[in-house]
Amino acid sequence: MSRTGVAATAGAQQGALEKLASRVLELANKEGADAAEVSLSRSSGLSVTVRAGELETVEFNDDQGFGITVYKGNRKGGASTSDGSEASIAETVRRACDIARYTEPDDCQGLADPERLAREPVDLDLDHPWPVSVEEATELAKRSEAAALAESPQIFQCDGAQVSTGQGLRVYATSNGFLGSVVSGRHGLSCVAIARDNTGMQRDYWYTGSRRHDLLEDPEHVGAKAARRAASRLGAGGVSTTTAPVLFVPEMASGLISSLLGAISGGSQYRKASFLLDSLGSAVAASHLSIEEQPFLPGAMGSGWFDSDGVATTAKPFINKGEVASYLLGSYSARRLGMTTTGNADGAHNVVVSGNTRPADDLIKDMNRGLIVTELMGQGVNGVTGDYSRGAAGFWVENGEITGPVEEITIASNLKDMMMNLVAIGDDPDLRGGIRAPSMLIEAMTVAGG
Amino acid sequence: MTDSLQAARTVLWDAAGMQQSDVEKMLSRLHSKDLDIGELYFENQRFESFSLEDGIVKDGVFSVDRGVGIRAVAGEKTGFAYADEIALPALGNATDAARSIARAGSSGSVALAPVGGPVARYRSIDPIASLPQDDKIALLRRLDSVARAVDPRVKEVNIRLVAAQDTCLVVAADGTMAGDVRPLVRLDVTVLAEDKGRRERGFAGGGGRFELTRLLEGDTVDGFAREAVRLALVNLDAIAAPAGPMPVVLGNGWPGVLLHEAVGHGLEGDFNRKGSSNFSGRIGEQVASPLCTVVDDGTLAERRGSLSIDDEGTPTQETVLIENGILKGYLQDKHNASLMGVAPTGNGRRQSYAHLPMPRMTNTFMRAGDSDPEEIIRSVDKGIYAVNFGGGQVDITSGRFVFSTTEAYLIEGGKITAPIRGATLIGNGPEVMNRISMVGNDLALDTGVGVCGKDGQSVPVGVGQPTLKIDEVTVGGTAA
Prior knowledge:
CATH architecture of the largest domain in chain A: 2-Layer Sandwich
CATH superfamily of the largest domain in chain A: PmbA/TldD superfamily
Distance between the termini of chain A: 52 Å
Mean pLDDT of chain B: 96
Strand content of chain A: 35-45%
Radius of gyration of chain A: 24 Å
Largest sheet of chain A: 6 strands, antiparallel
Shape of chain B: globular
Strand order of the largest sheet of chain A: 3-2-1-4-5-6
Structural class of chain B: alpha+beta
Helix content of chain A: 10-25%
Number of domains of chain A: 2
Structural class of chain A: alpha+beta
Low-confidence stretches of chain B: none
Oligomer: heterodimer
Number of helices of chain A: 9
Number of strands of chain A: 18
Order of helices and strands of chain A: HEEEHHEEEHEHHEEEHEEHEEEHEEE
Low-confidence stretches of chain A: 1-8
CATH class of the largest domain in chain A: Alpha Beta
Number of helices of chain B: 11
């Protein structure tokens, strides 16, 4: 029951897909499009879940996608399909052209300006296939689960240990001369542990993810960490409603960075749906905070040499010493704002945070009394006003020491105040995703509990 | 054979030149004596949307996703693979991958027979073709004017009109053969209002499993436009929300998201089979106040969360989850029902052929009580009245859940007073359900905008409830 080399053919398909992209652009032209952009993707992967020492689920993923956007003058139409057959692609092109008969003209619509298109492919070291068999993946997941169960007698079961691997090919081409393709992969291992005592049950998880399987954390490390995290939450108490400093661990702090970047992205600026409207050059965060985009980090999760408009990405600061140095703009939002695209039509490509950096453990001492947030729940972030109110769980700190787990609490403030009142960041950036957030200590928030 | 099964066969088999005998052969290849479920799920999803921004319909998108998901289940083991096209060679490869969990070789032949009993809960129509394209554009433009005409403080209007048709056909080694054609339409209006430098957004929308023309009847869509504006304007005047535990009155309809989070997810069969839910093993126990009766009902005509059959071919039903506060039952798909020794409840759902089915909600709501909604408000000296929510989340193991208000007011001395800024409410499912002290006589279901996420899969759902009072919930405001 093995199937090795899940996606070893992705690279071999590259040339064929690039040729197909060119043919589709010609077809769109024949169907009456003045301009067109096309994206084609192929991906495949394997995901294995183990529970109670046995293989529970094995999933083989094998996806293809085709999407086209056509322009007739300043009218736009889009269509997509999962069916990569030539007949289906031709039908999809016709559908996109048909849609463009009904949409209305918009001067800002259209392909990226040719001079902004990326010209030089950059090898970003994103493609490291992991030819793992189902048996091997199962064994790794079993080791992780076993380590979780062995870590603490309070772990009565795991809600699955999972190993996944995937590899994909993405081709993007435009009728004004861009053709780019990227082959990339990502692999991961995760474990969910459930702890129980006479106060109830608690779950928590840990995961490791990388573009290179040899850089994944050991299965035992992942399992044991998931177990410790779950067990440490047992017997969680409440918090009396108060105002206190709040320390976001890196996994939670990434959400703060996302909200900040969302507020200075072109879409929210031209829609006036931002709590940082017209903020270019203004101070929006503590003066020690800088947030930079670094698109060319080898092997990083967010690396890319062109954005979803085909525009060249660039390394640059978004926030420099607390001030907005650049919005995140794609071609459309840039035209709407009378500006130039920044190569961020699809967001930021690796975000690196710097500032008043302290050893992560010292942040707890610095805080002295307050809340460490290890979990956030719900969607209570208003991007228009910056109002922030979310469910939280974590640990309470008194006199610089953790006194115990807390849950069923809310934390609330406004993102503008939170960013201005950022006291310090940790030396612990989370490298598993595109946003490399460190711990972030906020001076004061309303903490409410029962 | 039902009309919908016949229609599904036409779209999914005839168009691909596939015969029933080909499918039966594929099922025989999948089947083995140690498999409990061997299933092929054929699907064709068509989707169209038009979006208006800045007063013009600038975006239109059409998509078709089709393929076949193949599932093999042996005891607690599941093997799954899918093909992105409906063609025999791709199907054969995916079948061999999925059945790799089986120890024994292929065995026996399979003969398909239509599943008996499903009642159509909606008509097998194509909503995309139910309104001419020009009329769709005209509708969006007209609603833009309606929204802007309400108040000069309206600065931005975004409207999206979506029509989708999902045709599916499920066949299994036990002979199951069932098909469905599912229409789904939706209209969303989002407005941004600005006054004295302050900006707020408001959202309203709805839809169901019917033609687009149905949305045009009466005042429905104009009502969405005006409601979105009303909400944005209310929030322009909102003051800081209070913080801490206090009485909360929830309005009827969409605030039923409470039941979806506090009760529904925790009663899904997979979590309870595995013992990972805080409702596990508690059938027959008091898990809510005696005023509470909560049901999941997939049979309601033309509702967003309704299905004639679930994605495993089981006809949907009304399932009583909690009756007068006592836990009565779980939501089941075939796999978990069989492992728990109970009957499936028609709740086996999947996002698409490329996803595994699992127990999911349909329309989940609380039955009406006796109280007059105004009397419920009057009973609160100091608390909040929450009538609109952005969404929620639950940790089914501990029972903790949240949901975040988008329209709420202070209650002071039994009267609704100032609107308050968005705040998250947090509680523990059974604890909060036990603190429900009044239930209104005004049951309403939502307008048809719910999307439920679980394990990365999204499915349309409905929620509803009467006005109700919870004696104490933690409110996450900033005014301590």
